[in-house]
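agent> Task received from the user: take the single chain below, predict its 3D structure, and emit structure tokens. No templates, no multimer pairing.
agent> Plan: (1) validate residues, (2) run structure prediction, (3) serialize to tokens, (4) report one or two observations.
agent> Step 1 OK, no nonstandard residues flagged.
tool_call: predict_structure(input=
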Amino acid sequence: MALSPKQIEQKVADVGVAKAEMAPARAFVLAVMAGAFVGLGGMFMALVKSDASLAPAASSLLGGLAFSLGLCLVLVAGAELFTGNSLMVIGCMHRRYPWARLLASWSVVYVGNLAGALLLVAFLAAANYCGMNGGAVGATLVSVAVSKASLPWSVVFFRGVLCNALVCLAVWMGFAGKTVVDKFVAAILPVMGFVACGFEHCVANMFFLPMGVVARALGFAAPGLDTSALCAAGMLGNLSAATLGNLLGGVVLVGLGYWFALGGERDDAAS
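)
tool_result: status=success, residues=271
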């Protein structure tokens, strides 16, 4: 039987304690895995979206379904994902661990996610992944990266807010399930939603932006495409906005929202 929302809130706090107390080396390795897992979802999505015969709506929906591979791997196989770990704020609000430990955990996981995404980019470059579908995959990767790097900072920020609200809701619902199927089903629709709507996920962009740079360097950019936005400033601007937006969406809209609605009364009773 699935957990109730109040039981999920308690479980999230308990899991947060384990995450906060995890040795940094272990957390880093699991974060590398998560960065690679999300990148695998991006890899699958790019392959789907490179099919020019698909209608735009079908391409967006099927691309979102393919991308859900990443979060499913994180939830089922086990890994440390920066965006999902926004829910650790609940443990802090219950005074289970200090804010300094939360920030230290987030920092290790963020760097690990980046390392995992870059590692996957290197493997895919060596495997000539960009050349699949007659080079259409590489062209798609360049197009996706350029479109992300070209967005105004404020647009990326608010898309990041909406994105991680959906991601954290997927993680939240995943805690309710007790089987692999439960977790898989919980992840699919929220992930499909944020991908289809074009929202911004900082860990996914740790994969898409460097992969776009690699694909461009290998000559897969479509003729006439202006790729000038795909530079260090464009990528750093995107990642900073997406990261801060993801934190606001996950920490405030989901984490603090559920803590206040479902967990605050336990703290009042304890005091």
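agent> Step 4: summary for the user.
The longest helix spans residues 232-270.
agent> Done.
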